[in-house]
Amino acid sequence: MANPEIEVFFDGDCPLCTKEIDLLRRLDRAERIGFVDIAAPGFDAAAVGVDYPALMDRIHGRLPDGTLIEGVEVFRRLYTAVGFGWLVAPTRLPGIAHALDWAYQTFAKHRLRLTGRCHDGVCTLPHSSAATGV
To answer: Which terminus of the chain, N or C, has less C-beta within 10 A?
Structure first.
């Protein structure tokens, strides 16, 4: 894809994340979204301008002008790109926006544990040495 409306950086090792990304891929008939799996071999976080732990901490997106966005705003842009702007509009209302930001931050903070990727009570970043160049 030459010029997507938004490029999304997602964790392809996250089962819940990939379900949503798979849905967005199916809905993106006009190919307005660029999908980048940060768990893929060879992914280089430095090319994004954000370190790997920050990319794993919450979802990020990049707009055509290079602006990076994160969190709920990424989802707003993704769903607008696939034609659900009418559904996105209410999520910008003050009370709803605050609740969604809180809910996403809570999920993101516990995402590895909630998706079964912690072992013996320890949650570590997968692929961290390869993805950070360390």
So the answer is: C
